[in-house]
Specification:
The structure holds two protein chains of two kinds. Chain A is α+β, with helices and mostly antiparallel strands. Chain A has a single domain (2-162), classed as OmpA-like domain (60s Ribosomal Protein L30, Chain: A), CATH 3.30.1330. In chain A, 48% of the residues lie in helices and 13% in strands. Chain A is built from five helices and four strands; from the N terminus they run ααβαβαβαβ. Chain B is mainly beta. In chain B, 11% of the residues lie in helices and 45% in strands. Chain B has three helices and 29 strands. In chain B, the strands form seven sheets. In chain B, strands 2-1-3-4-5 form a five-stranded mixed β-sheet, covered by helices on one side. Chain B has a four-stranded antiparallel β-sheet with strand order 8-7-6-29, with no helix packed on it. The radius of gyration of chain B is 23 Å and the shape is globular. The interface between A and B is medium-sized, with 29 and 38 residues.
Chain lengths: 164, 418
């Protein structure tokens, strides 16, 4: 009995450490994006596997040029976030971004299309629309500096940010 | 020895822009710039205060260089000089100066114009110099000078804790910058009211888009719009009663007009496209705007009475960010000729549809016109920083205005200020 308890404790500790690692990454990702936010997986009442926590630590979805279509490869990530949101009811903000090409306000609109696409995908998984806020920063907050194709690709993104 | 001394003075006066955040740097030659000598008159008597017309001449030469039409010189001995400006400052004691100048035609030795100003304080020298530049410019070109105007812009600096954004306001030559708003989140789209007293802008301080209007004299601001989604691209109507804004509260970005007295909103475009960047015609009856309703961003004209839109740009695969010249004859815009090409500033003659590309770097954006329609200030890249560029509407004069620190973007040229 005691050994089983200890084993559960050990597993629980590993999971906790894993969670701290995950949330640290999420905090790093959220740095410079305004209000301090905790990562997914730290909220009370969340129950999930290690694989789910790993998916939750991924909060950025990247887009092709001039597109707001979500690649099928992100389905697992979106499902994981949708599960978490439904279970915890935590308010979330989807931030949309565009690369540096084009006019600023038009790029705000492009960024919003991306954020909306992610919000719609989450709502399709049963997340309440009132839980999701959308903001687009257009090309104002690039993550990758420079003018290369790679920098452009890294800036065409939507970011899932949990609010407190 | 004397020539060496005057060149030293010239070099010093250019780097003396240490106070300004926007420095004027000539990086491209100007075609057909007319040499004009601006200097102190020999009659100027050296006085105990050490003040001299040279203090105004520095400012005047910078102004005339900036507008792209003139090559200001410190001496009339240079070949090709057509006009000379001679001035003098007389100290009357107690911070009371008399400033006078003459604009002369070298060939006919005519006095084209002369003016005397009394009761000038030393702190007013710069403002007076800009006024003299206006007078000279108008006399020689027939166009009202825009040297006594201001430019609002967004400054972005990187700190250890992330980026800092500020909305700033400076004289048109970059001097006397003041900070109006400071934020850890982006600020966008500064836009002047027609009387030059207010600025509208977009702020993300609250991690969402909001539109504010601010009284320039007091810095006092009022929140106008914070709907869910986009609140962007504010543009004042010429009569100051209406603000055109872009809102996506109903799903996609559409253009609305807000009555500034009652704050009521009326929607003016519809459909599933992105409509943004409204710009007013001078008579307040039409709006030019960017829309992708035809597939890619192009510029459309909206008749406010009928709410009907028609496409205006047909040259190039991307046209955005329209702005009308004061005479209503030309559209200035962001333009890309073909897919994968560079973004540049272009003008389109509305009567003929003819497009001229004015700039030649890779990522030129955010054009703003001087109130006399003669010059375009715009954003351009310098390595990994944003700087401002200046080009004349005929494309002939080009300047770069790098900031001392950080990036400068989204310039907005004020109207004529009384």
């Amino acid at each position: 009995m005691y050994t089983r308890g200890l084993r559960h404790l050990a597993v629980g500790l590993v999971l906790c450490l894993g969670v701290v690692g995950c949330s640290h990454n999420a905090k790093q990702g959220a740095k410079g994006q305004g209000a301090y936010t905790q990562g997914a997986g730290e909220g009370a009442g969340f129950v999930g596997s290690e694989q789910e926590r790993e998916l939750l630590s991924r909060n950025k979805i990247y887009f092709a040029f001039d597109s707001s279509g979500i690649d099928a490869g992100y389905a697992d990530v979106i499902n994981a976030h949708a599960n978490y949101m439904r279970q915890t009811n935590r308010p979330v903000r989807i931030e949309g971004h565009a690369d540096e090409q084009g006019s600023r306000e038009y790029n705000v609109a492009l960024g919003e299309r991306r954020a909306r696409a992610v919000a719609n995908a989450l709502a399709a998984q049963g997340v309440a629309p009132q839980q999701i806020a959308i903001v687009s920063f257009g090309k104002e907050k690039p993550e990758a500096m420079g003018h290369s194709e790679e920098a452009h690709r890294l800036n065409r993104r939507a970011v899932i940010v949990y609010e407190n | 020895m004397r020539i060496f001394l005057s060149w030293v003075i010239l070099c010093v006066s250019i780097s003396f822009n240490a106070q300004a955040r926007l420095n004027i740097e000539i990086t491209e030659g100007m075609v057909a710039a007319v040499p004009i000598a601006v200097m102190k008159s020999e009659e100027e008597v050296r006085n105990a205060h050490g003040t001299s017309f040279e203090q105004l001449a520095v400012v005047i030469r910078n102004d005339l260089r900036m507008c792209g039409r003139f090559e200001p010189l410190m001496s009339a001995q240079e070949p090709g000089v057509e006009n000379i400006v001679l001035g003098k400052v007389q100290a009357l004691g107690n911070d009371n100066f008399m400033v006078s100048f003459q604009l002369l035609d070298v060939y006919k030795t005519n006095v084209l114009t002369q003016q005397t100003f009394q009761g000038v304080k030393q702190q007013d020298f710069r403002k007076l110099a800009h006024h003299i530049s206006d007078v000279i410019y108008e006399k020689l070109t027939g166009i009202r000078g825009a040297f006594s105007t201001r430019v609002a812009y967004v400054m972005v600096t990187s700190t250890m804790n992330g980026k800092r954004y500020s909305l700033e306001l400076a004289d048109a030559d970059g001097f006397n910058p003041i900070t109006l708003v400071k934020s850890k989140e982006p600020i966008m789209s500064p836009s002047w009211s027609a009387d030059g007293r207010q600025l509208a802008f977009v702020s993300f301080e609250k991690n969402r888009a909001e539109i504010y209007i601010m009284k320039v004299a007091t810095g006092q601001r009022e929140l106008l719009s914070r709907f869910p989604g986009i609140n962007g691209a504010p543009a004042w109507s010429p009569d100051g009663r209406t603000l055109a804004v872009v809102l996506s509260k109903n799903g996609t970005p559409k253009i609305y007009l807000m009555d500034l007295m009652t704050k009521t909103l009326t929607q003016y475009t519809d459909g599933l496209s992105i409509d943004t960047e409204p710009a007013w015609s001078k008579d307040g009856r039409t709006l030019y705007f960017t829309s992708n309703r035809g597939g890619k961003p192009q510029i459309y004209r909206l008749d406010l009475a009928t709410k009907k839109a028609e496409r205006i740009t047909y040259v190039g695969e991307y046209n955005a960010r329209p702005m009308l010249t004061p005479d209503g004859k030309y559209l200035v815009m962001m333009h890309r000729s073909e897919r994968g090409g560079s973004f540049n500033i272009a003008s389109q003659e509305l009567a003929t549809g003819q497009v001229s590309v004015l700039t030649h770097a890779n990522l030129d954006e955010s054009p703003t016109l001087s109130p006399n329609g003669a010059m375009v200030l715009y954003g351009t890249q310098d390595g990994d920083r944003q700087v401002l560029g200046l080009v004349t509407l005929d494309g002939r004069g080009q300047l770069r205005l790098p900031a001392r620190e950080g990036s400068v973007q989204e310039p907005a040229w004020s109207p004529f200020l009384s």
